[in-house]
Amino acid sequence: MMKRAFKDKVYGELSKITKAMGNPHRLEIIDLLGQGPFSVEQIANHTGMSVANASQHLQVLKNAKLVCITRDGNFILYSLAGENVFNAWAALRALGIVYNAEVEKVVSDFRKGYGPIESIDAEGLIVLLEKDKVILLDVRSAEEYNRGHIHRALSAPIEELSSILKTLPKSKTVIAYCRGPFCVFADEAVALLKKKGYKAQRLYEGFPDWAAKGYPVAIK
């Protein structure tokens, strides 16, 4: 193989990955699968797509070797092919936030609807957890919490948060987290907590980001 043919081939193969990721729906699917395996029906429900549309996007990701499938009884579950897939998405997300001001503007404009939302990063949170200074709430679904969660976090699915509030003391700041920077469950939780008189913040990152940093996690 000549040098030019070699380069055309190798860059062509790599471009299949960028083409597969170069779609907003597929990026959202990758972000979701960072939480763990999901069926196509669950993916469609979480992303607002039809099952047929979600299935088509999953096939593209599968052909690019970015997702794989496993069987659980009669169900087919989709998951990321490896942690490097999530790391690539996280790096792309960070790149977009730094170099595309519109990303930060969209996020900021959306969060204005919930009032001022303070956030803390993973490095700041681990210090507060070690000092027992905060209450940490995982506002994802119970299923996602059971698969893996930040050590010492309490399960408080967003749809159940109102009923859980009476068990939380107001003497500590409450920090809510969900799937990642673009997950709105944490914003909804902070808005509700502040309305009820709690000091509240959101974790800027999500559980997959926390786990990728090697910080303590637990499985129910």
From TrEMBL:
The keyword Cytoplasm does not apply. Residues 6-100 form the HTH arsR-type domain. SUPFAM superfamilies: Rhodanese/Cell cycle control phosphatase (SSF52821), Winged helix' DNA-binding domain (SSF46785). InterPro entries: ArsR-like_HTH (IPR011991), HTH_ArsR_DNA-bd_dom (IPR001845), Metal_resp_trans_reg (IPR051011), Rhodanese-like_dom (IPR001763), Rhodanese-like_dom_sf (IPR036873), WH-like_DNA-bd_sf (IPR036388), WH_DNA-bd_sf (IPR036390). Residues 130-219 form the Rhodanese domain. Transmembrane segments: none annotated. Keywords: DNA-binding, Transcription, Transcription regulation. GO terms for molecular function: DNA binding; DNA-binding transcription factor activity. The keyword Ion transport does not apply. Coiled coil: none annotated. Pfam families: HTH_5 (PF01022), Rhodanese (PF00581). This is Metalloregulator ArsR/SmtB family transcription factor. PROSITE patterns: HTH_ARSR_2, RHODANESE_3.
